Amino acid sequence: xxxxxxxxxxxxxxxxxxxxxxxxxxxxxxxxxxxxxxxxxxxxxxxxxxxxxxxxxxxxxxxxxxxxxxxxxxxxxxxxxxxxxxxxxxxxxxxxxxxxxxxxxxxxxxxxxxxxxxxxxxxxxxxxxxxxxxxxxxxxxxxxxxxxxxxxxxxxxxxxxxxxxxxxxxxxxxxxxxxxxxxxxxxxxxxxxxxxxxxxxxxxxxxxxxxxxxxxxxxxxxxxxxxx
Length: 228
Description:
- The protein has helices at residues 2-47, 57-79, 86-112, 131-135, 151-158, 165-187, 193-218.
- The protein is mainly α.
- It folds into two domains: 1-47; 50-218, Ferritin, core subunit, four-helix bundle (Ferritin).
- Helix 2 (57-79) runs antiparallel to helix 6.
- It is elongated and about 90 Å long.
């Protein structure tokens, strides 16, 4: 009887140790899977082309933040070129003010965004055109420069070039159109309410500036003011 009880308690002890080993193995296995998935997500993000690919919520923000920074750098460079056109200066200052705020907004959004927001399933998407697309349609195609998403390399490339009002406008029109196209692609699949609102506002705002810059580029009269 004593031997039987001893064996019984021995079996319970072995079973307890096995349970601990199984739990530790599960924790280790889960940790390894998390590390592998994280590495794969980083690799996939690095391989994504923001000009053409469908991006997740995080990837959209990761690419749009440096894209905005390039617009700010270009606007500051034109201001430093001592131009005397008050319309161009107003445009530059407005872009700097708005896009600097949006960079802060997107940075805050990235810190609070959940990975579970993204889905491959199509949701309810508003496809109606904006007012500018109806009353002032323009060709929504632009050459996507990879340096639009690399502020340091873009600044290095531009530092030896002469920046004028015309060169600024010719550079910023396709730059804005790329942001509009990225936002339209994200709206096709994102379910994040804040990002949906952010993208719609960005599309309307930057389409307005595209039309404004196109008109400025066509206008041969360059207003100058000695009061600036």
